[in-house]
Design goal:
It is a single chain. It is built from 14 helices and eight strands. By secondary structure, the protein is α/β, with parallel strands linked by helices. Helix 9 packs antiparallel against helix 10, helix 9 runs parallel beside helix 11 and helix 11 packs antiparallel against helix 12. Helix content is 52%, strand content 11%. The chain has two domains: 113 residues, no CATH class; 171 residues, Alpha Horseshoe (Serine Threonine Protein Phosphatase 5, Tetratricopeptide repeat). The strands form three sheets. It has a four-stranded mixed sheet with strand order 3-6-7-8. The structure holds zinc ion. The site of zinc ion (ZN) has 9 residues, from loops.
């Protein structure tokens, strides 16, 4: 049987190559303690020496108990739901192949499932239900702390400065995000994600003119319809209706399903006194798949249309669709709805 081998994985926060000893098989009969290490996340765990980010590798492990005729294919961490069935099938086939001819085989995701499959083992009382994956950078707060630790070793790394700034911005700390983002783009002017986040900082902090300029730079680098759309929002807030229309119309030409861009086109039209064009844009938003009327109603700019019968018809139609499509409740904060 092969022993552990060492592989290198890239840290999703600082980019460091992290060595990990990979254990591919655990024999419960020979070493019962090993399976407890496995489900506690101490085996196949990567910890980055630069930033401290840590997590389980989503690598399959064969857990076998030959005296019980039992083999399980085990993955310790979260697996995307759309891939779970396919992976589970492969795990099970693999386990069945090894358990042949009369053994019992199982596919297990996470420590709790493995305990259910092998209840007779001496399990610790507290088990994590699922382990955090190393390749998942985690919550904004965790990313921020890890980036700060990594910056101690590499203070002028633009990618780390960008990651810190983006984590701060995503964690709602807009003002603090500015300095690291400005330094990142000063060191590396073509870094689209840092420019995008810096543009958003400016948009949120009431500097729409600067935000527009930065989103335009993102577009010139990456041709992203989302940045074009946000450049349009910034232009509107900067009091430049023509620049706003140019950008928003281009954004929906490039990505017709960008519902929010249609909604903002309606806002710009309404602000320039064109009720007819505003309603046409809202119809476009509905036709492009808008399924939540709050995307419109959250904008106080539509106040003047509240009693307009055509406006109410559009909203009512979207509202009916909304009732039929349960949504996750997660709202996007890429454009905050203050004036
Ligand atoms: Zn790292």
């Amino acid at each position: 049987m092969k022993g552990p081998r060492t592989i290198h994985v890239e840290c999703p926060i600082c980019g460091e190559q992290v060595p990990v000893q990979l254990v591919a098989r655990v024999n419960v009969d020979a070493d019962a303690a090993l399976v407890r290490e496995l489900v506690a996340g101490r085996l196949n765990r990567a910890t980055c020496a630069v930033c401290g980010h840590s997590g389980a590798l989503p690598e399959p492990v064969i857990v076998s108990a030959p005296t019980r005729g039992f083999v399980a294919g085990y993955i310790p961490a979260e697996v995307p739901p759309n891939r779970k069935a396919g992976i589970g099938e492969r795990l099970l086939k693999n386990a069945e192949r090894i358990a042949r001819p009369k053994g019992k085989a199982a596919a297990c995701f996470g420590p709790a499932q493995l305990r259910r499959a092998l209840p007779e083992l001496d399990w610790p009382r507290e088990l994590p239900s699922i382990l955090h994956r190393f390749d998942d950078p985690g919550a904004a707060r965790h990313q921020e702390q890890a980036a700060r630790r990594a910056l101690k070793a590499r203070p002028d790394d633009p990618a780390l400065l960008a990651r810190l700034g983006i984590a701060l911005y995503n964690g709602g700390r807009t003002a603090q995000a500015r300095a690291p983002l400005e330094r990142a783009v000063a060191l590396e002017p073509g870094m689209a994600d840092a420019l995008h986040a810096l543009a958003s900082v400016n948009l949120d902090d009431g500097s729409p003119e600067e935000a527009m300029r930065l989103y335009d730079r993102v577009v010139s680098i990456s041709h992203a319809p989302l940045a074009r759309f946000l450049a349009g929002v910034a232009a509107h807030r900067a009091g430049r209706p023509k620049d706003a229309l140019d950008r928003l119309q281009q954004a929906v030409r490039e990505e017709p399903g960008l519902v929010e861009a249609h909604v903002w086109l309606a806002i710009v039209h309404l602000a320039s006194g064109s009720r007819g064009r505003a309603l046409a844009s809202l119809r476009q938003a509905a036709a492009s798949g808008m399924s939540d009327p709050r995307l419109v109603l959250d904008h106080e700019e539509f106040g003047p249309l509240q009693s307009d019968s055509e406006f109410r018809e559009i909203i009512a139609a979207v509202g009916k669709r909304h009732e039929r499509t349960p949504r996750t409740g997660r709202r996007d904060r890429r454009v905050r709805h203050r004036g």
